[in-house]
Amino acid sequence: MRSLASHPAARGLEDDAAVLEVGGEALVITHDMMAEGTHYLPNADMADVAWKLVAVNLSDLAAKGAEPLGVLLGHMLGEGDDRFLAGLREALHEFDVPLLGGDTIAGTGPRAFGLTAIGRATHSPVPDRRGAKPGDVIHLCGRIGEAMLGFEAMRDSTGADSAAYRRPRPLIEEGQALAPLAHAMMDVSDGLLLDAQRMAIASGSTFALDSTAIAAIAPPERLDDAMRWGDDYALLLAAAPDAALPVATRVIGQVMPRGDHPLLIDGIPPPVGAPLGYEHRNS
Amino acid sequence: MRSLASHPAARGLEDDAAVLEVGGEALVITHDMMAEGTHYLPNADMADVAWKLVAVNLSDLAAKGAEPLGVLLGHMLGEGDDRFLAGLREALHEFDVPLLGGDTIAGTGPRAFGLTAIGRATHSPVPDRRGAKPGDVIHLCGRIGEAMLGFEAMRDSTGADSAAYRRPRPLIEEGQALAPLAHAMMDVSDGLLLDAQRMAIASGSTFALDSTAIAAIAPPERLDDAMRWGDDYALLLAAAPDAALPVATRVIGQVMPRGDHPLLIDGIPPPVGAPLGYEHRNS
After folding, report:
1. pTM reported for the whole predicted model
2. Residues of A in contact with B104 (CB under 8 A)
3. Which residues, at least 6 apart from B34, have a Cβ–Cβ distance to it below 8 Å?
């Protein structure tokens, strides 16, 4: 099935969170859906599903340096609604965001939920994925691979900590602190390599990543998988080499003029045919 | 299954569209979902489904006197996506509203879609359903029962016009014109009697409706059904008796001090046990 993005009517649907200028403020608006069987398993704790739905949308705001103002929920009624609402309440309380409204519907079969998050940009211009410049340094704020390990702990019932997968934490304060210095910024929702390649293409440059540096913020024995796994919601950004970033980040590469490949790892392009991450836009 | 509204974490979910003050402007934000099997039949033209998804959300903005600024789509990929996008494009073009963003996901089983619409209030205070005062006159802008007839024409393949059901038109300009004079306003999405009762309860008053007046804006031989059918997206409002409304409306009743019943039709409460409209909040 082809992506909606190729259709002119759907232009804009695959981009970053939307930015809307209203009354001298820049609003940042994002909408993400989660569906049973696609984004969570039928036996998942619905409290975790609700938490994640909030977290992934707030992470989109974080990547814009936006302060969350509220969310709207699209909720399909079903089993586990008490747990869903408990998780929703926990997440909204944890990140101090009000539920502004939404819709509840009856449905048949597997369920789907949508969440719209609205924020106020704290810095102008609002960072997007297009502004990385040759000479910039590529930073990652946060770690990767933790959600992967959490997922595997759940799947294999090892008893190991799975919170990074079940209860991701959007880097809201970090995003606001980094926005004034970021030439480009996005959250790593679909895998570091895939999202880095997206930013490189959007910026018309080549991203040269250093796997040794990445290994310091990933489970080293699982580095290759971790670079292709999503759900960690770290922030990927490009900034001037002399920028004094106000929060801890790891330098993982350099922005170069656009070469034959948008992405290089230790100087060579990733192997052809191996997925770079989770391509959830297509089925 | 109980409604989510009874849960403290879901407070606000069943209200009007949300109003958010940002930068001296009042933003109006609404989110409605549509699910296969609940809101449309599996054999529906997906172009009509997309149109309706846009229209129902823009109608929520219309009831607030808001000027639409844009929409975000939550789209579950599936059969008929070309038709869905054609209908989406038609509706967005017709009502001159941009697609700001959204999300596309893969799903399994029956599909669900969500749309978030964002508007800018053109009048402050933004009308809601709580402000009707005893002595006010109750108006309806638009007709009721047309969607019912359109639905029946489709269901029975009579060949009669079904556009009112398939392609409802939100009263955006009318809503903006009426907002400065409306003490309370809402769109009639779930049936005139049900929505009138909701406005009466929210306003702490009794709405006394006149069936003869309603018959003039409904198919008279189907008046009883028409008052209980939704999907027409007329605007229900209460205004001072001497208000000179700038667009055509029909006076259908009076606001009275709260009596034993929130709703009277020709002086008597509606029969107990008969539904007043479409209670889509509960299953």
Report:
1. 0.89
2. 3-5, 10, 13-14, 281
3. A105, B40, B49, B52, B53, B56, B112, B113, B114
